[in-house]
Amino acid sequence: HKGSNGRLSEITRLYVQNGKVIANSESKIAGVPGSSLTPEFCTAQKKVFGDTDDFAKKGAWSGMSDALEAPMVLVMSLWHDHHSNMLWLDST
Asked: What EC number is given for this enzyme (predicted)?
């Protein structure tokens, strides 16, 4: 979402299943409220988990907003793994 200043202010996630739109669930982590990515959510998440805020060091939301103004290509690959049921995603 763009804020009133035209810059990136929020990233939301919605799911569509059988034609029904399903909102992302609320965070259940104490001290990290919300159901979308916002500057406040990201800052709180780093504090709660004691992580280094590398995102802030790299420009944070302002840097992300600048990057999204440039042309981009989204590349995705979807497949079904009958042999190992994609267990590699779980590092098993």
From this structure: 3.2.1.91
